[in-house]
Amino acid sequence: MQKTVLFKNSKISFSDTGKGSVVVLLHGFLENNMMWKDVIPVLSKNRRVIAIELLGHGGTEAIGYVHSMELMAEAVKAVLKNLRIRRIALIGHSMGGYVALAFADKYPEKIKGLCLMNSTSLPDDDERKTLRARANKMVQNNFENMVRMSFTNLFSEKSRTVFKSELKMALEEALQTPVQGYIACQEGMRIRSNRMKVLQKNDFKRLIIIGKKDPVLDYETSLEEVKKTNAEAMVFNDGHMSHIENKSSLTEALKTFLRDL
């Protein structure tokens, strides 16, 4: 069951399941809490799992036309403050990982462990910044086609066939994202800063989950990031959507990551 809390006069939607030490889940761009539907039942058997829908996604309202990673981190903080939660393990998929890093940057004392799932501490390069700006212009007149194209491109041709029904369901959720949420988050990701130092200077547990065939994140660059941050790594043979393409292996990896937290 979804709950809400107010943040800057806007509703932030989240779910709260189970009891025990707290783990917070943050979805990616064009996703919502539905992406965690197979993860939450497993993790909540012996933990309290808070899944937060980020600005302009799911049941959470948009705030203006720039959702910076810092602003979304403050929204996460508002949920935790409302629930009187002090320390957490934090897992973020793709854009959710960028928000998790911004949160850890602002509130490192609250973090027991941080997992970047198909995500990175590095900023966009110039090419991707240009692509995001272009997408934000195009989406205003052609939202559905833009979402279909960008979301489908997250899957390899093989995955599009093997996980056809899962892709269809995820795409239906993506198409519920409002245009304002799309634009604001794209801009927020475009201007995000390099947060590798967040992983380097803090001693909380760190895990980076990598897809060898990730179309968004370069495999070799991700491996180099692991080395530079001394983080643990879990490598899957598929792409960007580990919760779909590597569901059982991902769940086991997350259980292992959380074991001592």
UniProtKB/TrEMBL annotation:
Keywords: Hydrolase. InterPro entries: AB_hydrolase_1, AB_hydrolase_fold, AB_hydrolase_sf. Coiled coil: none annotated. The keyword Hydrolase applies. GO terms for molecular function: hydrolase activity. It holds the Pfam family Abhydrolase_1. This is Alpha/beta hydrolase. It comes from Asprobacillus argus.
